[in-house]
Every structure is written in C-alpha cells, then in structure tokens.
Amino acid sequence: MMRKIIIIQLLCLPFVAMADHLEVRRSAGIYAEPDRHSELIEMIRPDDFDYLIILHPLQEDLENGYYNVRLRQGVGDGWVYRSRVRQFRDGEGSYVPYKRSLYGSGWRDADRDCQNTRAEVLIRDDDDGNVTFATSRNCRVTRGTWLDPFTGDTYTIAGDLDIDHMVPLKNAHESGGWSWSSARKRDYANNMNNDFHLLSVDDSQNQSKGERGPNEYLPPDNTFHCEYVQIWLDIKFEWGLRIPDTEMTAIDGVLNQC
Are 100 and 48 spatial neighbours (Cβ–Cβ below 8 Å)? Predict the structure, then answer.
C-alpha cells in the first residue's frame, strides 16, 4: 500500500511547491491559533502517515514558534509548532545527476509471475479484458484493445504502445526524487497502486513528451487536458515532488478552462 502523504501549504502562498520545505516524521498537532492551548483542529499520528510535507516560503513565517498552514484535505487552516518539523533548504544534500538506471534497469516483475510492469499495465488498460500473449506462458502481451487517452485513438497492437510515467522519471528526479532511496526510486518507476501513475499510450507521443512538464507538452487530444494536469498535480503531491512556477502557471492556465 502506498504511504499516505498529507501536504500542507502556508496561507500566504499560491498552491505551488517551493524549493524549501519542512517534514514532520512524528505526531503533529494542528492548532486553531499559534498556541497549543487553543483548539486542536487535527492530530496527525504516526499510524496515519509516513511523513508530512509542509510547503513554505524562503523566509520563515513563524508566530510564537508556529508555522501557519492549510491542510490540503480541507480540514482547515491551522498552526503547527516548529519543534515538530525538520527543515530542509533548497539544494541540501548531494544532488545526484539523473540516470535511468537509478530507477531500476527496466520494468520489474514484482510478484514473479513472468508478467512485468509493462505487461500488467497493458492487461489493466485493455478495454475488452481479452489480451493475446506471445506464448502460452502468458508473459508478454502482443494484442488487445486500448484507448489511448493522449490521442483518443484505439490501438490493437501492443508494440504500438509505450507505458508512460505521467510525471516522467527525469522530471520526478529533478523535482526532488534524486534524494529518494534506491528502493523508493524503483517503487516510483513501477508504481501500480492507482490506475493513472502509469498509462498505456501511443509510443510516438510518449517519445514526444519525453521528460517535459505541462508547460512544454500537453497531449494532442485536448479533451484530456483537464484530467492530465490534475493527475500531474496528484502525483506530485502524493510523492512530495516540487512544482516549478513554470509548470504551475501552465497547469493553472488549463484548469481555468475546465
């Protein structure tokens, strides 16, 4: 099961990720006022999350030792005490340049049933639920029926499709994934805990997209644009990845038309 991540944003900012951030790795009370004797809005306990990310500006915004925050889930505005967080500055640590091999040598077969992540995504996305395999072992998918959300076209030959990381590996890496453990990188590359992290799409479109964000690439089928940028946001928030201003400006432009 994917770890639950609760994302918090300071009230004074638009909903974009900043380079600096705070992480809470233990119980944290969210209070109505910058005072632990005020109303407790929410107590986030260790069994509710693995870590908590608080987005905040370059300058510390503290009152009485508390950060002013907004809960993404709509619980409400509140304050969290600074001792509950660890502060990370932009560029902290040793940046590791992107290489595909950091995220595994290729698609993995986690359950060792001979169907790797590519095969399992193709089977999941098949519209008819009746794919054809290369051999009787049912390992490699060759044919089926897939509606590509990027183009709006239907494909029947698996070789015409790529499995797209909605937030590409290099983009994720440069948005903060470089600091992940090797296991977390591999989990990101092969994540199937939802039906949108990886998608079966036209191979030429996947290559055209490359590592680019919504500010540089949107699918040719404009009816998918609203869902595309919302998925992009969901993945970045879920995995605690930064959203550069250029990406957020493009996303806002799309969402304003939805």
Answer: no
